[in-house]
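Weekly puzzle thread! Below is a chain. First person to post its structure in token form gets bragging rights.
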Amino acid sequence: MKVPRHLIDIDLMLLVIVIGSVASVILPKMLSPADPVKVKWAEGDIRTGLPAALEAFRRDNGDFPSTWQGLDALVKPPAGGPGSGKTWNGPYVNRPEAVLDPWGSPYVYVYPGIKNTEGYDLASLGADRKTGRDDIKNWGF
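Winning reply:
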């Protein structure tokens, strides 16, 4: 049995409408830039807030927290390494959430740094929470 041509045209038109509707909802979310307020917040944390806390930790304990200790060493005394003794004088941040980026993920901290070989690397993975295009880092400013 042969399907009338006008039914094929209607089916094709409905398919195009459905695909267009789905794309109009999904594409803006995928292509929209990160919230500029959150980006500025993360830049502020990475440029001044966390570096000040890390420097205070270093002054008290003789070195920055290790990668293993991470930024949690700014919130509570670490179990081993720098800051594990009586020299820890923190907390070095005003709230425990300060070690999280504006999107709720922990800041990436590496010491000794790979990019900043004289210090530490500090970064936010951004809104997509993946390494790539929207990362905010303390190198390349």
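Puzzle host: Confirmed. Bonus trivia for everyone else. The domain at 36-137 is CATH 3.30.700.10 (Glycoprotein, Type 4 Pilin).
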